[in-house]
Amino acid sequence: MTLPHWPAGLPLVEFSRQPISPFQRTEMENGRARHRRHTRVHPVHAHVSFVLDREQYDVYQRFCSIDLNGYAGWFLMAMNGPGGLKLRKVRWLLPVPREERIPGDLWRVSGELESMSDE
Fold first, then answer.
1. Rounded distance, CA 28 to CA 119, Å?
2. Torsions phi, psi of 39, nearest 5?
3. Strand partners, 108
4. Pairing state of beta strands 106-116 and 43-53?
5. What DSSP line would sit under 13-28, residue for residue?
6. From which domain of life does this come (predicted)?
């Protein structure tokens, strides 16, 4: 099954990236702590924020509710990162994004997306 794409009429997001360590740390009773790699591919969390008008907000709501099965599914979104702007496989982390109504009949949506380091 193909992944849904971020709708074309919606803005690209402003974001900051935070790679998550692929290592597991174990404290020892004696001696130094041990580090081991628990995965080759590590998640990258991106804090995102964007402003939508009423029509864009309706498109966003349909996309998240229907295409993403209530914010749960993976989707493709153009994001800037190592290698420039390219499509990345992402999903919303819980809790679901915060949706805040702001002056001018606009909505500010902010939340956290997860992608994998090699995708």
1. 35
2. -160, 145
3. 51, 100
4. antiparallel
5. PEEEEEEPP-EEEE--
6. Bacteria
Residues in the chain: 119
For residue 112, give the nearest of 12, 23, 18 by alpha carbon: 18
Distances (CA, A) of 64 to 19, 36, 60, 86, 104: 24, 36, 6, 21, 23
CA nearest neighbour of 114 among 2, 38, 4, 19: 19
Instruction: Name 52's bridge partners.
Output: 107
Residue 55 Rama label (left phi>0; alpha psi -120 to 50; beta): alpha
Q: Residue 5 is encoded by which pair of tokens?
A: 């794409």
Q: Note the pLDDT tens digit of each residue in 38-78.
A: 667 778 888 888 899 999 999 999 999 999 999 999 999 98
Spatial distance between the Cα atoms of 63 and 59, rounded to a whole number of angstroms: 6
